[in-house]
Amino acid sequence: MCIRDRLCPSATLAEQLCDVTTAISYFAARADEYGFDKNNLFITGDSAGGNLAAMTVKASVNKAMAEYYGLGELPRFNAVGFTSAAFRLSQYEKPAFSGYFRPLFKDLPPVREYVDYDADISSDYPPSYIITGNGDFLRRENLSVAEKLTAAHIPCAVYDYDGNEKFIHVHNVCYPDSDIGKAANDGMLNFFGSYIKNL
């Protein structure tokens, strides 16, 4: 399924997370009706949607965070895929960014662990596949998070394009039929395939 959420600044981060988790809970409760296998759940997100995917995963393993945002109980995910994800919202409160971003993220909680995926990494995080490349303005952040996940013994694979072409932000989403896009997306699918539970 493809979840649509309300966007900033018309919705707060908490409301966006509520949109995502409400949709997940809705379909999980109707798995038989829709033909879903609740034992094999994966989540992906790109850019700001990557942050929502990251925060959803974090809330699924952090009860205090889920309660803070008013989220219900969430299922566990077999694996998660991130494309050019915005993992660290707290950085947008810095003076260099705050003039533009503060109105968008006016409800950020004071608890850094509730807005930054790599703050207080849980051993319960699912395996992660991260896509980035040489023209992605979030490349450094994505590679840094990948290093932290690996150091925390969370299985993590990275598709980091550094070839002759320019890999723009969310390249594989914008150009899924390009050679680069196909390689990145196929890599994520293959990664997910290795975490499918056979009943």
UniProtKB/TrEMBL annotation:
<dbReference type="GO" id="GO:0016787">
    <property type="term" value="F:hydrolase activity"/>
</dbReference>
<feature type="domain" description="Alpha/beta hydrolase fold-3">
    <location>
        <begin position="6"/>
        <end position="164"/>
    </location>
</feature>
<keyword id="KW-0378">Hydrolase</keyword>
<dbReference type="Pfam" id="PF07859">
    <property type="entry name" value="Abhydrolase_3"/>
</dbReference>
<protein>
    <submittedName>
        <fullName>Alpha/beta hydrolase</fullName>
    </submittedName>
</protein>
<dbReference type="InterPro" id="IPR013094">
    <property type="entry name" value="AB_hydrolase_3"/>
</dbReference>
<dbReference type="InterPro" id="IPR029058">
    <property type="entry name" value="AB_hydrolase_fold"/>
</dbReference>
<dbReference type="InterPro" id="IPR050300">
    <property type="entry name" value="GDXG_lipolytic_enzyme"/>
</dbReference>
